[in-house]
Amino acid sequence: EDEAKETKEHERSELLDEAKERFAYCEEFWHDNYKRAIEDMEFRAGDQWPKEAKDARTKEGRPVLVVDKTSQYVRQVVNDGRQNRPGIKVSPIDDGADIETAEVLNGLIRHIQTRSNADSAYDTALECAVVGGIGFFRILTEYAHHGTFNQDIVIKRIRNPLSVYIDPDCKESDCSDAKYAFLVDELDEEDFEREYPDAKE
Question: For residues 142 and 112, is the Cβ–Cβ distance under 8 A?
Answer without folding.
Answer: no
